[in-house]
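We modelled the chain as a single entity of 211 amino acids. Its sequence is:
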Amino acid sequence: MKRLCDGLAKPNDIYDGIPLNFPGVKQEYWSGIRARLAALTPKGPIATRFLSKNLTVLVVGESVFVHGGILPEQVDYGLEQINNDVRDWITGLKDNLSSDFRNTLNTIVWMRKFSKIYVEDRDCSRLEHALATIPGVRRMIMGHTIQTSGINTVCVGKAVRIDVGMSKGCINGLPEVLEICGNSHLKILTSKPVYDVIQEQHEPVEMQVTA
């Protein structure tokens, strides 16, 4: 509407810089992909209005919440500084965001170091180091890597993996919730049957998880 009103500054074209085509993707999907990219790219309307208000790292009580994981060097950089940098990048106040926080496998949002299935693939010692440098924090709670067995802990309860892939686009997993009572009492609320029995309807079941 602003484009039709004389005297008002013309809004920026949100599609500026967005590719016109996507090789390897059916053309019928191109317009939807362009709209999604335009909305979610830094300075995009959805990114600015909603995503910029989300924290990348959050400490609540004895838990630190991240999407993928966190390493000692990232803690040393500063959790508040990470949140500020990401927010400023999303809103356009900062032109670039360090690849240490968005483009490599060791970034906070892409990391899987503590979500692997096999013990030998996890790096619990680095996790312990990272947690030890965040005052009062005992555990890290993360998503990003789907846990087909449901919410679980590793590294002696210091890593809590809560991504159960509920989306149909993932594995259409049954709903589960991690409930934290106070600081140290953790409980899994799950609709998954405790026993491998086919049932007409699954009522929520409470399961304890190591804190």
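As a brief sanity check on the tokenised model: The longest helix spans residues 79-91. The first strand starts at residue 58 and ends at 60.
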